[in-house]
Design goal:
This protein has one helix and five strands, in the order βββββα. It is α+β, with helices and mostly antiparallel strands. It has one domain: SH3 type barrels (Roll), CATH 2.30.30.140.
């Protein structure tokens, strides 16, 4: 199973972006994306590569669902 995660773009340097997920920052390659991104955008990242730019409302909704799943798992539900 593969998982792509929505992350927020913090900075862009050439074909690489610094992204943030829950306060953890990492880098994502932009080579496969085919469209410009800027700080504040949300992108979908799989194995370190951005594969899609996301609507901010959709990205935030997905992240909220991930948080709910994590909370349920921690509570043993």
């Amino acid at each position: 199973m593969c998982l792509a995660v929505p992350v927020k773009v913090v900075a862009v340097m050439g074909n690489e972006a610094t992204v943030d997920l829950g306060g953890v920052q990492s880098r994502a390659r932009l080579d496969l994306l085919g469209e410009k991104v800027k700080p504040g955008d949300y992108i979908l990242v799989h194995t370190g590569f951005a594969i899609r730019r996301l609507d901010p409302a959709d990205a935030e909704e997905t992240l909220k669902l991930f948080d709910e799943l994590l909370s349920a798992d921690e509570e043993g539900v």
